């Protein structure tokens, strides 16, 4: 069996100072198949015509190495970022010149069983290029990260809901198998799948912990502090915490000290109220800091020193910040959402994202030197196990073997459970 992996998103995001969750996933998939035997995987990207073209393996390996160094941080991060941009520019130049289309055709014509992986949502709404790959004999397997723009269009950018509907329609019409990151995503996806049985693999995403950061991480300055990690957008519910901290600032003026809050992430869309508070609320001066986008080393340093990660989101498909915090041994207080319960199990404190009083009580307890709720979570955290990429790809390999083997398509698909929150099953939608 051979795998063809679309790396178009890596080319597009090569100049980003920090990656999104989807960027991380495509990079993890790229690194995994770069390490596999050369004849087992090839890499493609979308050309200007909207189709796919083959990219040289060594070019993709160079890009993956540079992006890993740039996004991790460290002394060579700036140079690595420049190098990643240059490599991506060279790859886009090849696509502009039309190189790689013929090579891809020859690869697909070699008679080998082939799986075409698209793990980023990028251009998933364009059915024609994907259908061309399927007509050439490749089984199509996308990774769906969430259905949030469809189920919660009020949190999406203008036009994103309709675009995501087309993506889900493409998945339902063409997917020979689907990878999802959680059972919550699988449940939301099932109405979109076509009538015949389509195997759906629930495979939690692996966690990459950055190298040990410098001893003195930024942000706390000797005071207890909390971290909120994610793009500043309405779905993440920054307003809840900002109003809470403003109230605590008023209490501070009456003699009660307030902990700090560090907000990590880029500014997204439709966040005018949040930005106004961050930029103009003098009551938050000195106790709330907008750190912006930070490399992985600095985020790791911040999390390790925090009293807890705060994650009051209204909707999630997986919850990567939660998994990252728990993997570092950092407690978390998060919204009571099915996807977050899949990630955190019994460890975090789960709260209603609209219950300001409950969040205030939790923050006050976790900020205290010997808060009982934080101590209890640290005890539970000792038994939590971080999901790993090796486990993820073992499950993915089983799905790819099924969708590329005609005999296997006739038998029920089963894979061993690797953890309580991992499930593999067929989705038959009537």
UniProtKB/TrEMBL annotation:
Residues 221-343 form the Glycosyl transferase family domain. Keywords: Transferase. InterPro entries: Glyco_trans_1. Gene3D superfamilies: Glycogen Phosphorylase B. It holds the Pfam family Glycos_transf_1. PANTHER family: GLYCOSYLTRANSFERASE WBBK-RELATED. This is Glycosyltransferase family 4 protein. It comes from Roseomonas haemaphysalidis.
